[in-house]
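subagent[fold] <- orchestrator: predict structure for attached chain, return tokens only, no commentary.
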Amino acid sequence: MGNLLKVLTCTDLEQEPNFFLDFENAQPTDGEREVWEQVDLVLKDARSILDELQAYKGAGQEIREAIQNPNDEALQEASWAAVVPLVGKLKKFYEFSLRLEAALHSLLGALTNETYDDPTQHLEREQALAKQFAEILHFTLRFDELKMTNPAIQNDFSYYRRTLSRMRINNTQAEGENEVNNELANRISLFYADATPMLKTLSDGTTKFVSENKNLPIENTTDCLSTMASVCKVMLETPEYRSRFTSEETVSFCLRVMVGVIILYDYVHPVGAFSKSSKIDMKGCIKVLRDQPPNSVEGLLNALR
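subagent[fold] -> orchestrator:
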């Protein structure tokens, strides 16, 4: 919370980028197409991942009954039968996070290279890639919102691991054991242990991109992120730009992307998004959020806090 108050004194910012980034209709140019097609394959699956996560009910009832009646073999089998397919879904979500990280690396590679002089030119002239970057951020925050409100995810996976350990001690062959071996189970467990697992994946992936591309100045990446945040803010607070959105959903999309890119910047930049030397107008971004209906942005303000 202190960080939000600190930014109220931050006014030392360069001229903001001022252009319309077409999140609704941007199409790839020939130069963007190769990376765009790679990333598009990943994003096509993002919608179904969110739908499956939203529909995830868990096996709480079966697990409770099995724990309360440890000697009832039928209830033990019923709980195992309920949990195994759910763990298959959790594994699928985790594996998608790896694909998403790879897609992010491809986009960062394209948006931070030396083709153009600065990040504003990259985002303005490679709008289809900028739109995909925004879609990844939008998906990430939505995934984490759904995960945070569903305790069944960690409960189911913990029960699966405990039961698997017990079966191994008893030398019992577990149907579904091959689905998630011990090493993979450890990685999946660490993934879901984080409050915002998908955002952590992107943050770690961005940091990894910077460390693996030492020929690129870190500013190429952080300036790309700060410029994206500024573009979102300017579009949201400028009636001329905002009136060009054909759907109110684009406003929500833009808000979510702005917050996601601020958090990424905060992870990657040596002094973070909230310092006076930050290239993000945090005061302006927070004002844009607070100007929206409170119910629609409370989760985003909490993410910044």
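orchestrator: received. Logging for downstream: The first helix runs from residue 2 to 6. The two ends are 5 Å apart (CA to CA).
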